[in-house]
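Put briefly, the fold is written as integer tokens. One such record reads:
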Amino acid sequence: MSLRRALQLGAPQLLRSSLVVSRNTRILARPCYNRKLHATTARRDSSFTNILADDNPPAVQVKSITNAGIRLQDGLMVPCACIFLEGEVLLWDVPKTLWTGWGTEHFEIFETVVPRPEILLLGTGKSIANVPVDLRTYLNKLGIQLDVMDTRNACSTYNILSEEGRRVAAALLPLTPHSWKKARAPRSKSPK
């Protein structure tokens, strides 16, 4: 059977063919049938190593982001501003209005952590908002590169960089402002 004829008949098993030239220079195709592919569970081949992959996935991965908050891969919903740092999720107490009342005290956590992240992804909500110069200067003095983007892009960039094993942190504001109700500790009565 010729290759052209096999293709016309729609032979799906014909994966490759070896061509033979006969004496009268007619090209004939001799089909070589391979095994059909099947789905099996993947087995790791220890002879190959992916140097970018880790057996332990990053501790914090964002699955989705909605108006209700940021949903993590493990199912946890974070409804308010948060910081992803060193594989942990920290709730972040920030003013409701963007950049009004903000100061370096809102980023002091990055002074204490060792090693400091190379990159801080700042998600500013639904749209990008420029960071005040004093905050950008403060983080640059700490040796942290600040990348400002909307929160959706900050989440996806965080997932990629953390999977690569980079020292990355994310400070994320929700798409719609939410804040925690602050509970006050009950006053203890002094003994008489």
Summary: Helices lie at 3-9, 109-112, 133-141, 151-163. The beta strands are 14-21, 27-33, 62-66, 69-72, 77-78, 82-85, 88-91, 119-124, 145-149, 168-173. The first helix runs from residue 3 to 9. The mean pLDDT is 77.
